[in-house]
Amino acid sequence: MKTELFLREKDDRSLLVVVDMINGFIHTGALADPKIDHITPAVVETVNAYLKHDFPVLAFRDCHNESAKEFSSFPPHCLKDSEESELIDELKPYADQFIILDKNSTNGFVQPEFLEVFQQMTDLRSVMIVGCCTDICVLQFALSLKGYINQNDLGIEVIVPKNQVATFDAPGHSAKDYGHWALKLMANAGIHVVNNEEE
User: Fold this and answer.
1) Alpha-carbon torsion 100, 106, 36, 85, what sign?
2) How far apart are the C-alpha atoms of 84 and 61, rounded to whole Å?
3) In this structure, are residues 133 and 106 in contact, taking their beta carbons and an 8 Å threshold?
4) How far apart (Å, rounded) are the C-alpha atoms in residues 127 and 125?
5) If we measure between CA atoms, which residue out of 158, 138, 144 comes closest to residue 25?
6) What is the pLDDT of residues 86-142, one digit of tens each?
7) Which residue, 67, 90, 66, 80, is CA-closest to 24?
8) H helices then E strands: how many in the chain?
């Protein structure tokens, strides 16, 4: 199911959330894995489709100060005003059309401005989530958002396309396995996990 086809089938307004498509998780830094870059063309295609339909695009950027509490769990990464915290080059041309929120934790849902922005989008019928990492930032945000939607009885579908999320390979962290189970957990929570590679 291509994004353009999905949006044509859905007459209602949709929000695209791009999670951490930044240099620090793909190109440079302690947590970068260049293999995540394989989702970039599909993400850019989806961004173009949303902007073409005048639908909102919100991009989270991981952005920390040097004393961030998160560094007790992960190596220092994506420091504020560093190259690591910047959007990847393929997305920079669209940045002035994005709502950009910098976050100091793995879960963008708790970013102080997110709910304020989200609650202003009163006519949404779906939210599509793309980016990285599938089993950390994407999973946490998607589950939190779905929980909020359920709690408030909102008619908003949460969608995650398999070919537009990715995670990293590291010792004890298989990208294939962790990504697979993260998608399973999201589907089990009622999130619509789709295969956008299907025609």
Assistant:
1) positive
2) 10
3) no
4) 7
5) 138
6) 999 999 999 999 999 999 999 999 999 999 999 999 889 999 999 999 999 999 999
7) 80
8) 6, 7
Six-digit token string for 187: 């589907």
**Contact of 63 with 102, CB cutoff 8 Å:** yes
* CA–CA distance, 32 with 28 (Å, rounded to integer): 5
Q: What SS3 state is found at 80?
A: coil
Q: Which residue carries 């769990």 as its tokens?
A: 73
Beta bridge partners of 16: 57, 128
Scan for tokens 């695009």, then name that residue.
Answer: 57
Q: Report how far apart, in Å, the C-alpha atoms of 8 and of each of 12, 42, 138 are.
A: 9, 17, 25
Q: How far apart are CA 159 and CA 146, in angstroms?
A: 10
**Residue 133 near residue 166 (C-beta atoms within 8 A):** yes
Q: What is the pLDDT of residues 133-192, one digit of tens each?
A: 999 999 999 999 999 999 999 999 999 999 999 999 988 999 999 999 999 999 999 999
| Assigned token pair, 18 | 């791009």
pTM of the model: 0.92
Place of tokens 């950027």: 61
Q: What is the Cα–Cα distance from 50 to 98, expressed in whole angstroms? A: 11
The CB density around residue 24, as the number of other CB atoms within 10 Å, is: 24
Residue 157 is which amino acid? E
